Amino acid sequence: KQLLVESKRATAVHIGPVSFGEAPVIIAGPCAIETEEQITEIFAFLSGLDVQIVRAGAFKPRTSPYDFQGLGIDGLKMASRIAKQYGLLLVSEIMDADSLEEALPYLDAVQIGARNMQNFSLLKAAGAINKPIILKRGLSATIEEFTLAAEYIVASGNDQVILCERGIRTFETATRNTLDISAVAILKERLELPIIVDVSHAAGRKDILLPLAKAGIAVGGDGIMIETHPQPSIALSDAQQQLNMTEFASFYRELKKFINEV
Ligand code: PEP
Ligand code: MN
């Protein structure tokens, strides 16, 4: 049976006015929404660089229950207000179907995280809304499982799905996850959905983000997701992998240059 995600699309995938599948799109922002000052500083900076879509988590899927869990709906409302102020589109993760409806007015796209790639009730709920979904690949999900997770959303009525390769678990410990470049090429070949590459959660370190992003674009990726924070050393989550603003500005300039050359 041919899957819906393999069938020719009637419409392109958009977040707000930004379309995926043409020029690569760079989505940047902090791991988590922490304070009004932090969000104001980083969103002002990103809008100044002409970034159009920002990310920032309010519901954080943390391995330990004792780690910062995110500011929840109040954080999302705050980030949404500041994003609007700077003319930015906001992407944020929702972890369960129950939170979806309440959060929806504050989001331009809903992120389904790696840990929830096979949360089938969330996938079905995401299929019933009319906002775009960024679906991240599960920590140990095969390309087939990733494909079928996307199919759940589309089969439930929402064809606005952007896949996100964010690294998978392997024996390698030099990176947090192993960025699966093959998956990007294979999914581009097989599916009619755009795919972006989250270099930050793949690498778990900040020194190799530019080459990974270039690789993601070179194999046909439709965009890059990356974490940046005004003061990474005091970030409440993923401190070791977030670029500071100087580092991000340089990353952004170099990646734009690369995109214009290829
Ligand atoms: C995130 O992007 O905030 C995140 C938690 O990533 P992942 O779901 O890929 O681990
Ligand atoms: Mn993170």
UniProtKB/TrEMBL annotation:
GO BP, sorted A to Z: aromatic amino acid family biosynthetic process; chorismate metabolic process
GO MF entries: 3-deoxy-7-phosphoheptulonate synthase activity; aldehyde-lyase activity; chorismate mutase activity
Keyword vocabulary terms for this entry: Transferase
Keyword Phosphoprotein: no
E.C. number(s) listed in UniProt: 2.5.1.54
Keyword Membrane: no
Domain of life: Bacteria
Protein name: 3-deoxy-7-phosphoheptulonate synthase
Species, as recorded: Culicoidibacter larvae
Positions spanned in the full protein: 92 to 353 of 355
